[in-house]
Structure formats: C-alpha cells, structure tokens
Write a structure and sequence with these properties.
about 10% strand; about 45% helix; 9 strands; Arc Repressor Mutant, subunit A; Helicase, Ruva Protein, domain 3; two-stranded antiparallel sheet
C-alpha cells in the first residue's frame, strides 16, 4: 500500500495510517481501518517520509519499534506485522542534526538504504522511462499507446531535468494528452535544451479572444476525433457533448475527418 505523506494534512495522514474510531473527530461517522491495519502481513510504502511532522514521527516510531499502534480516538493497542518502505528527496541526516527529524526514527528506517541517483545522472534510463510514462498515461486515458520518435528521445535525454523524474513524468503526460498524432515528436514536448518552454508565451495569447477560443476548441475536437479514430459518436461522448452538436461544431471550425478514418 502506498501513502503520499505530503498530499495529506497531518490530521488526515494520521487517520490514513492508523485509522480512526467512530466519533473520534468531526466527520468520523464510522470506524475506519488505517493502512497499517489493512496491510497486515504486507508492506506499506511511505513517500516523502522527510516531510512528516513530529507527532506522526513519534507514532511511526512505535510501529517500527514495538509493532503496535492505536486508531485515532481508540484505546486498544493493535498489532502491526508489516514492512515499512520509505522514500524521501530530503537529506535526513541533515534534518536530524537540525532537530527536524527524530534520530531514533531515522535509524529505525535506515536499515537497508538504497540511493537512487537523479535522472540527470542516469540518462541511459530516460528512453525507457519515457516509454513507461507514455504507456501508463495512455492506459489511464483508455487510448491506444503512442510511439515516440528518436529525435524526441534525443532531446529529452539532453535535458538536465532539474525537477527530476516527476518533471519528466509530468512532461510526458502533457505530451500524450495534447498529442497531434500517433507518434510523439520533438514539437510535442515543451522543452528546449536549457529549460522548459512552459514560461514561453502561448501563441493563443496573440489572437483575438474569439479566434483563440475557436483555436482551442479545434484542438480539443481534433484530439477527441484522433483518439476515437474518427468516430464522431464516441468523440462527442469524450467531449461531453451530443453528436449533432459535435457535427455542427466541426462544420463551424472547418474540421474534416481524414480519409481512412
């Protein structure tokens, strides 16, 4: 089971990990089992462990040291037969020295440490990572998998990736969503050799409002038609409109379905 610790407030994180009893706080209308209880006999992956607060650190230490915990609002000790795997992009040794992370918890977690170099230091992995994120995004969108050109891979490999693998994943996801064909090319990725092009002016900003709106609508319609292989009924459903409305919109925007689709 995976828990992203930075995605939840301290209160919600405590409930997510340890569970809670009915009536333990406002909105707790029923008992809830936490990840540690649900993962009995298995593993819990705690992402960004370096960002958790001192109260959670203390309770997590008890889980690792005594294999026991209590639900929020509970009084009964529960047994935890689990393996905890944790990850962070922070320097925990420095956090310990600064008093921001418990030293005893650090040593409990640091039994087997695996250092994963940033993606810029393992550029040979970038093509495989790009293809993985393409497949993942296409699967989540329910569309056929896309290919990626060698030129695009060469450019992505040359980029320094200051935001590490998350930046790469986000860029690939954006490229897939906005793809104009079955193959992702250099122009589908918003980067140059030095920095992302996300700060560059969007061409739509130079158009009058009505033209910009039509251009944006056209992009969405063409994308939906491409994903649905020219099937207007399915494309309309994807866009959340009725098929007759899509036909009228296509006529207004001058969009035609290519032969063979």
């Amino acid at each position: 089971m995976v828990v992203n610790t930075v995605a939840l407030s301290p209160e919600l994180l405590e409930s997510e990990l340890f569970g809670h009893e009915k009536g333990s706080f406002t909105g707790a209308i029923a008992q809830k089992k936490g990840k540690f209880e649900l993962a009995e006999g298995g593993s819990v992956f705690l992402d960004e462990i370096g960002d958790i607060g001192p109260d959670i650190q203390t309770k997590l230490l008890r889980v690792l040291q005594d294999h026991e915990f209590q639900r929020v609002g509970g009084t009964r000790d529960l047994h935890a037969d689990i393996r905890v795997i944790a990850a962070t992009n922070r320097n925990l040794e420095q956090a310990v020295s600064e008093g921001k992370f418990r030293e005893d918890l650090y040593y409990r977690l640091n039994v087997v440490a695996v250092h994963l170099p940033p993606v810029r230091d393992r550029i040979e992995d970038i093509p495989d990572l790009v293809r993985h994120f393409i497949r993942k995004t296409c699967h989540e969108l329910g569309i056929p998998s896309l290919e990626v050109s060698q030129a695009a891979l060469d450019q992505l490999t040359a980029f320094p990736w200051p935001g590490n693998v998350r930046q790469l994943a986000n860029l690939v996801e954006r490229a897939v969503v906005l793809a104009r064909g079955d193959v992702l090319n250099v122009e589908d990725f918003s980067i140059d050799h030095h920095k992302p092009n996300l700060d560059k002016e969007d061409p739509l900003e130079n158009l009058p409002l009505s033209e910009a709106v039509d251009e944006f609508k056209g992009r969405l319609v063409r994308r939906a038609l491409m994903l649905e292989r020219g099937n207007q009924t399915r494309a309309a459903k994807r866009l959340g409109i009725r098929q007759p409305n899509l036909s009228r919109l296509m006529k207004t925007l001058g969009i035609e379905i290519p032969d063979g689709q």
